[in-house]
Amino acid sequence: MKRVLDILGQGFAYFLFALGIGYFASQPTYHPFADDQALVKLAISHPGQRKQACTARAVDHQRNIPKTARKLMDCPRERHPVTIELKIDGKTVFNAAAAPSGLSSDGRSLFYERFPVPAGSHEILVKLFEAETAKGSHYKFSQKIDLKPGEIAVVGFDPTAKAIYFK
């Protein structure tokens, strides 16, 4: 009889525990932003231009190196920081530069920001600069968008098409 009561007590405790998990998993609803708002996310990972241009190695220098280790070009690893400017309806909401990642400052610059906006029509303008100087190549994207309440839109960079996209 004691064994049956132990099993029933343990089953009741498991039932209460499962009931608590079920309640807290569904009941306290989470709203990341207000019901009449939408969200624009800026999620870009992009390498800046190299700080120094690649140079061709001398032929005499190549003869002294084993064939498996020969490289025709000598490219320094360090890169410029990337700068991104985001305007929504003509108002600058984000303007920042990110240093390249990696121990040798040779990786990608990473950006991730969230901007709650009222639902409706908005003009989005994104500019990406790969170098600190005005000569550095840049990418520009401008589009008029219509966001519904609760909709999430992402601004990113497609490295194969070499263009900023919005989806």
Describe the protein.
This protein has 167 residues and is of the alpha+beta class. 18% of the residues lie in helices and 42% in strands. The chain is built from 2 helices and 10 strands, in the order αββαββββββββ. The protein has helices spanning 2-26, 59-63; strands at residues 37-46, 55-56, 73-74, 82-88, 91-98, 109-118, 120-129, 138-147, 152-158, 163-166. It has a 4-stranded mixed beta sheet with strand order 6-1-9-10, with no helix packed on it. The longest helix is centred in the N-terminal third of the chain and has 25 residues, at 2-26. The radius of gyration is 27 Å and the shape is flat. The mean pLDDT is 88.
Taking pLDDT < 50 over at least 5 consecutive residues as the criterion, the unreliable ranges are none
Radius of gyration: 27 Å
Taking all residues together, what is the mean pLDDT? 88
Decide which structural class fits the backbone.
alpha+beta
Mind sketching the topology for me?
Elements: H1 2-26, E1 37-46, E2 55-56, H2 59-63, E3 73-74, E4 82-88, E5 91-98, E6 109-118, E7 120-129, E8 138-147, E9 152-158, E10 163-166
Parallel strand pairs: 1-9
Antiparallel strand pairs: 1-6, 2-3, 4-5, 4-7, 7-8, 9-10
Key descriptive features of the protein:
42% strand, four-stranded antiparallel beta sheet, single chain, flat, 167 residues, 18% helix, alpha+beta, 10 strands, 2 helices
Structure at a glance:
The protein is of the alpha+beta class and 167 residues long.
